[in-house]
Amino acid sequence: DDDDDIPQLSSHTLAALQEFYLEQQKREGMKTSQEFNQYSIGSIEEDWQLSQFWYSDETASCLANEVVVAAGKGGRIACVSAPSVYQKLKEQDGKDFSVCILEYDRRFSVYGEEFVFYDYNYPLNLPEHLLPHSFDIVIADPPYLSEECLHKTAETIKYLTKGKILLCTGAIMEEQAAKHLGVKMCKFIPKHSRNLANEFRCYVNYASGLD
Asked: Which residue, 46, 74, 172, 183, is most buried by CB atoms nearer than 10 A?
């Protein structure tokens, strides 16, 4: 039979492809609806070339609620390479806190003055209005699982925070996280909207609600 020579997609691959197209249609539908919120997770799509993997809605909500409590009334929160947490915080607009997003991806400049272009290779190349130790808590998710990336991001974190740090990175970075930031692993296990090969964990240096 000549049809035997035609390559066939496996049922698993077909299902995954169908799911991808359905997700895409859903996102496009959201963008055209009046209810679309520019701060919702997925409003800006992941760019895997930039090592972007958004948190699940539940994880982003949990982390956003945690930093609001940790920052305290009128607190200032910095999200370093953690845009899905920033988006969740903005969904709570009107609450008594302020937030800014430090991010390499300039698509997030749609968020106006709260957006700060950030390249971890130049950890202290920050605008003058970001004063040292001016944030009640910094939540950071370094884009790469390397000590170099963590070390440089740690310089930024230590410059910005008054003390509290919430770090999200791979479980394999536990030793380096303790070394560079003095943080300890929490019991809470963050999830992503797409499964990652590497086990992910949260680390803090204060008494948090994540244990």
From this structure: 183
